[in-house]
From TrEMBL:
InterPro entries: AB_hydrolase_fold (IPR029058), Hydrolase_4 (IPR022742). The keyword GTP-binding does not apply. It comes from the Bacteria. Pfam families: Hydrolase_4. Keywords: Membrane, Transmembrane, Transmembrane helix. This is Serine aminopeptidase S33 domain-containing protein. Residues 99-190 form the Serine aminopeptidase S33 domain. The chain crosses the membrane at residues 15-36. The keyword Metal-binding does not apply. The lineage of its organism: Bacteria, Bacillati, Actinomycetota, Actinomycetes, Micromonosporales.
Length: 282
C-alpha cells in the first residue's frame, strides 16, 4: 500500500508489487554484473610458480617491462640440446585461467620441434602485479613481443581462447610471421552470452576483444585449431573467425575434444600444425 494524494492509503495490486520486486532484483543483478564482470572473465592463479629451471631443464626466468611500468614474470624455453634451433620464437598467450605452470607441456612440445617459447603470464597472474583488463593484457603482450623479437629471427603468436583474442589484437599492431589461434571466440560478449544468457552481456561488457573484426585486417598465415566438443567456446565461433581471416588460413579440427582437453594443449595434431606453420617437418 502507498499513501494517496489526500492522505488516504491506496492498495497496490499484488501483480504490480510482484513486478516491482522483479524489476528491483533485475536492476540489482545488472548492477552487480557491471561492477564484478571482470571476475566472471578472468580467473587467475595468482600464486608465483617455482623457478623455471626447477620445472623444465634449461628454462629461464625472465622479466618483462610493460609500457605502464609493471614488471611481469615469464619463462623462456629454448630447444633442448641435440635439437636444431630454428631461431623462431613462439609467444604463448594463455587463456583466462591458471598460470604459466600449466603450459609447460605445450612449451616442452614446441621446444622439442626447435622453437623458442616464451610462456607469458598476464598482470595479476602467476605472481605478477596488477589486475587484468583488455588494455592491460595488450600492454603485457607488447612487452613480451619486444623481448622475444630481440632473441629470435621470426615470431609466431600463439593464443589459447582468451589469449587468441590477445594475440589477434597484437597482430594488428605488429605483424607476425604466423598466427596460431586455439579455440578462438568471435568476440568476448558473444562468448559471454553463451554462459550468461539472462544478462545483457553486449550492453554491459567493458572488455570486448573483437577477434572476428580484427582478423579481417591480418594477412599473416593463420592457423585455427578447435575441438568439436568445446563446451566453453562454441565451435561455430572458431569457424567464423577462420572464415573471416584476410590472409591464408588453415583449420585443424580435433574431433571430440573439449576446451581444456590435453589434445588441445599439446596434442599431436596441434603441435604438427604449428611446426608446419613454422616451416619445418613434423
Amino acid at each position: 500500500m502507498v499513501p494517496g494524494d489526500n492522505g488516504t492509503v491506496v492498495k497496490v495490486p499484488a501483480a504490480v508489487r510482484a513486478a516491482l520486486v522483479v524489476l528491483l532484483l533485475l536492476a540489482l543483478l545488472v548492477a552487480a554484473a557491471w561492477l564484478m564482470q571482470r571476475r566472471l572473465v578472468y580467473f587467475p592463479d595468482r600464486s608465483a610458480p617455482p623457478p623455471a629451471a626447477q620445472v623444465l631443464a634449461g628454462a629461464e626466468d625472465v622479466s618483462l617491462r610493460t609500457a605502464d611500468g609493471l614488471s611481469l614474470g615469464a619463462w623462456l624455453v629454448r630447444p633442448p640440446p641435440g635439437t636444431t634451433d630454428r631461431r623462431i620464437g613462439v609467444l604463448v598467450a594463455p587463456g583466462n585461467a591458471g598460470n604459466r605452470l600449466a603450459r609447460v607441456p605445450l612449451a616442452t612440445a614446441l621446444a622439442g620441434r626447435g622453437l623458442t617459447v616464451l610462456l607469458v603470464d598476464y598482470r595479476g597472474y602467476g605472481g605478477n602485479p596488477g589486475s587484468p583488463t583488455e588494455a592491460g593484457l595488450a600492454r603485457d603482450v607488447d612487452a613480451a613481443r619486444a623481448y622475444l623479437a630481440e632473441r629470435t629471427e621470426r615470431l609466431l603468436y600463439f593464443g589459447e581462447s582468451l589469449g587468441a583474442a590477445v594475440v589477434t589484437a597484437l597482430a594488428t599492431r605488429h605483424a607476425p610471421a604466423g598466427l596460431i589461434l586455439r579455440s578462438p571466440f568471435t568476440d568476448l560478449p558473444a562468448a559471454g552470452q553463451e554462459h550468461y544468457p539472462f544478462l545483457p552481456v553486449r550492453l554491459l561488457a567493458r572488455d570486448r576483444f573483437p577477434v572476428r573484426d580484427a582478423i579481417a585486417r591480418i594477412t599473416a598465415p593463420t592457423l585455427v585449431v578447435y575441438g568439436t566438443a568445446d563446451s566453453v567456446v562454441p565451435p561455430a565461433q572458431s569457424r567464423a573467425v577462420a572464415d573471416n581471416a584476410a590472409g591464408p588460413v588453415r583449420v585443424v579440427v580435433v574431433e571430440g575434444a573439449d576446451h581444456n582437453d590435453a589434445s588441445l594443449l599439446n596434442g599431436r595434431q596441434l603441435i604438427d600444425a604449428v611446426t608446419e606453420l613454422a616451416g619445418g617437418d613434423s
